Amino acid sequence: xxWKPHVTVAAIIERNNRFxxxxxxxxxxxxxNQPAGHFEKDEDLITAVKREVxxxxxxxxxxxxxxxxxxxxxxxxxxxxxxxxxSGNCHSYNPDQPLDDGIITTHWLTxxxxxxxxxxxxxxxxxxxxxxxxxxxRYPLSLLxxxxxxxxx
Length: 153
Hints:
A hairpin with a 2-residue loop joins strand 2 and strand 3 (29-33). The two termini are 29 Å apart. Strands 1, 2, 3, 4, 5, 6, 7 and 8 form an 8-stranded mixed β-sheet that branches. Helix content is 19%, strand content 41%. It is an alpha+beta fold.
């Protein structure tokens, strides 16, 4: 069997000192997370994060920076994740759009409100990502290079 990590994307979206989080159903109960999800076949990472934000929040998202690339595993019995964290801006909210399966609602929370809910975070990466953002971590989107269907002879 071939081992491979799960590749995911996440969006850190801040407005007026509040961060957009989703409340979602998980095997561990209702938890809070950034808008995030799995990278899918035939899409690049920027397309993936835009899609995930829209599906989970009904907002259109424009990534501006990469905050970090995080490698995480809860313990040796759990899958390993490579999570690319973006920051950016959202616009064009559609209140009539149904949210993705499992998403209950969205919340705009301060950093301290997120920290007070640590027991409900989907992973420690939620607060780590916010703290990286607040510490000024910013890397250009140009770090990402996509070579899909590149024929090489």
